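Board notes (copied after class):
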Amino acid sequence: MGRVKIIDKTFETSIPEEEIKKRVKELAGRLNKDMAGKNPLFLAVLNGAFIFAADLMREMTIPCEISFVKLASYQGITSTGKVHEVLGINEDLEGRTVIILEDIVDTGRTMKQMVESLGTRHPASVHICTLFVKPDKLQEDLNIEYAAFSIPNDFIVGYGLDYDQQGRNLREIFTLVADQ
């Protein structure tokens, strides 16, 4: 297993790139089947989900669209508990099938707020598709229909996920190594 140092913390490889790509392709296959005939609008949550969204979109074979929303709730390695919409949604969602693309769902507060906010725009349906979910940390009742990985409550970086804006470019997922 490889190790990387990012700023002041050490991380160790936990999920190799090949496994991530395999799971993203599997998710796309399910979405292609489930969303056939619906022309879904994917809403990718920036910054973390941009690599996941790009790889997933390249595997989509049905007509679909993508847009982006930027939410902020993290500072360093800790969630602030407050979600701020930094870049909003401009598309008309009325009657649309909307699929939120998120990098990671941990407490679920961000997702709950986003689903509630989208609901005020009268979409036909809203679905959650995430690369990672932390079931042991989940505090909100969410219907996460599409999740590539269920992971323990560890801090991870890579494949779009960051530590203080660093490490997003790593091709694998790295987990924070406990203090030594």
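Comment from the instructor: Strands lie at 3-6, 9-15, 41-46, 65-75, 78-87, 97-105, 125-133, 146-150, 156-157, 173-176. The longest helix spans residues 17-34.
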